[in-house]
Every structure is written in C-alpha cells, then in structure tokens.
Amino acid sequence: MNMKHFGAVALILSFPCLAEIAATSDLPDKNPCGDLDKEQYDGVRKDVKSVLDSKVIASINEQIAKRLEDARKKNPKVGVAVEIVKDWKSFQKMYNDDNPKTPLSDDDAKAKFDSLDAYTYTTAKDPPSIRVVLFCNRSFKDKVIDGKAKRVLVHELVHAKLYAMLIAGVEKSKLPFQENDDKEWKEGQDPRDRDHPGHPEDHNPDFHKEVEKLSKLL
Ligand SMILES: [Zn+2]
Fold first, then answer.
1. What does 92-160 look like in DSSP terms, one character per residue?
2. What does pLDDT average to over the chain?
C-alpha cells in the first residue's frame, strides 16, 4: 500500500467483560520519511515498539473492558493500526479510501497534515477499525528530536481508546471523558516557559490527565 504501513495493534476483545489487546509491531526497515534521517527513524520504530509493549496498552484495555461492562455491551474486535505518511496527499488517500462517503478535501487534509503531529480516526469499513497516522512533517520531526515521539503516540492511543468504546456501542455522552478542545485549557500555553512547555495539544484537563497517567507507564 502506498500508505507506509508502520505498525499495527490488533485490539482483540474476545471474551464478554474481558478485553485483551494483542499488540504487534510491523515497521518497515526502509525509512518512508524524507524528513527523518536513519537514526531518527530507527528511534521512532523503537519508540512505537516500546509504547506497544508497555503497560499503556493493558491500562487502556482495562478501561475499555470496564466501560463495556458498565454499558453492558458486547466486546467487539477492534483493530488499531499505527501508520506513518510522508505527505498530505498520502494521508488524504488513506483517509478517503477508509471513508469514501465522507472524504477529506485537499484543504482539510493539508491543514491537518500541516498543523498536527498525528491523526487518529475510525474507518467506515465493516467491521470498523481505527487508524493512528503519524505525519512525517516538521513538527513531528521536532518531537522525535526532543524525544517526545512516544508521547505523541500515547496521546493518539487515548483517542483510539475513546473510538474503540464508541465502536463498541458506548454512547458519546457516556464516554469516561471527551476529546473536545476546552477553551479554558491553558496548560503550557506560555512559550516563555521552556522548561515546562506543557501540552496545549491535550484538548482538555481530563484528556491531559489520561495522557499523563499512561505516559508514566512507559
Ligand atoms: Zn488529540
């Protein structure tokens, strides 16, 4: 596939009231990112493997299982694939192949690629699955250089957790927390504080708390 298949997490929820994630990493040897040098790309591969092998997945899994139990839902099988794309066109193609009825326009795909480090979405396939797409852009490269690639992935896995619950039939209002941007969310929005740059990308305090909690498991 022209989408650079980067890694995959199979989220296998096979038993009622018990969820299990089987995480696998399937990273290509060849660096698909023109922007990253070999060492940086190898670092990303190591980071992805390290996150997928960590207790982050188990913790997410526990919470999904608990929420499904609460909602008395049947556990579905939800696949989460971690991908990387080299430019906005590759991202748009991947997204639109997955969501042919709600395609991203050129402007929208470009705006997302240019302004975010990564993007997570649910496919309109049957059964639906989730894609975590890392972007080979300047911003992600900076995160790699600063040793923050793992946190980018953990942040996206928090979105994936919420989407897995939605796929399972949990109502949006019953999610443990939301992913909407909170206008009051000011964590780290002072660029002068270089030692504590914070995480304005974390949307809201609850989302931030979750990313922080999971990041401590790495
Ligand atoms: Zn986000």
1. HHHHHHH-TTSPPPHHHHHHHHHH-SEEEEE--SSS--EEEEEE-SHHHHHHHHTT-HHHHHHHHHHHH
2. 82
